[in-house]
Amino acid sequence: MFKYLEDFVGNTPLVKLKRIPGDTTNTILVKLEGNNPAGSVKDRPALSMIRRAQMRGDIQVGDTLIEATSGNTGIALAMAAAVMGYRMVLLLPKNSSIERIQTMKAYGAEVILTEGMEAARDQALQMAQAGQGLILDQFANADNPLAHFESTGPEIWRDTAGTITHFVSSMGTTGTIMGTQRFLKAQNSAVQIIGVQPCDGAQIPGIRKWTPEYVPTICHFDLIDRLMEVNQTDAEAMTRRLAREEGIFAGISSGGALCAALALSQEVENAVIVSIVCDRGDRYLSTGVFPA
């Protein structure tokens, strides 16, 4: 039976690392979200937010949707909007990689560049209030973490046969960690949830430490067992190692999350640690993280 493109979102591979972990009693697994149709973990909430808004009658085919994004959500929403028949307007920081901007435009989205992520969020809200479209608002929309509760969490539980002991995820919008932890904790409250944030001064795409007034509404820090910080140099070095030593071409936030997973692995034994590989490396080629 034939399927539509959106039917292939999710059920991404969970891969055991061979070389990077070294000599350890722990099993370190990475979930390859770059295998989603638009290339990132954000395909899941993008599809969820549009589908559920449509089911509620909040939007109709042909409407204009607005969203502030640092990149991956925008690409995913542009793809989903193209599939489902919506006009997409995306606001993102002007320092975003050219690959991200071009990919959004390739899907037919209108792109507006701003001075930063906070400015993008503010302008998106202003546009929605002015009646220029509906803001989906990944930062406050419960349909974002719900997508991970319904798919990412169950897939990890299934593919580890319930043996997972630690879940490690970079934190940006926080939809991935919020939704996945909810499912995993419901299966086994002993599973440890590790959130990864950048050190002060680090500029790692996809990982954010928000000022208090911009912390996403969907984020609940009390549901995270531990926060770990990663610096930019280490995240970029680990991203290159993933490609060279494991054959996994990933983005910089994935390298940052794996740094935290490996640090955690030094503290525990006989653990099953799952880390999220958020996207693919091809949308970072112009950033200089990979050698020319």
UniProtKB/TrEMBL annotation:
GO terms for biological process: cysteine biosynthetic process from serine. The modification N6-(pyridoxal phosphate)lysine is found at residue 42. InterPro entries: Cys_synth (IPR005856), Cys_Synth/Cystath_Beta-Synth (IPR050214), CysM (IPR005858), P-phosphate_BS (IPR001216), TrpB-like_PALP (IPR001926), TrpB-like_PALP_sf (IPR036052). Its cofactor is pyridoxal 5'-phosphate. Residues 6-279 form the Tryptophan synthase beta chain-like PALP domain. It catalyses: O-acetyl-L-serine + hydrogen sulfide = L-cysteine + acetate. Gene3D superfamilies: 3.40.50.1100. Pathway: Amino-acid biosynthesis; L-cysteine biosynthesis; L-cysteine from L-serine: step 2/2. Its EC number is 2.5.1.47. Signal peptide: none annotated. It holds the Pfam family PALP. Pyridoxal 5'-phosphate binds at residues 72, 172-176, 253. Keywords: Amino-acid biosynthesis, Cysteine biosynthesis, Pyridoxal phosphate, Transferase. The keyword Transferase applies. Belongs to the cysteine synthase/cystathionine beta-synthase family. NCBIfam families: cysKM (TIGR01136), cysM (TIGR01138), PRK11761.1 (NF008735). PANTHER family: CYSTATHIONINE BETA-SYNTHASE. This is Cysteine synthase. It comes from Deefgea piscis.
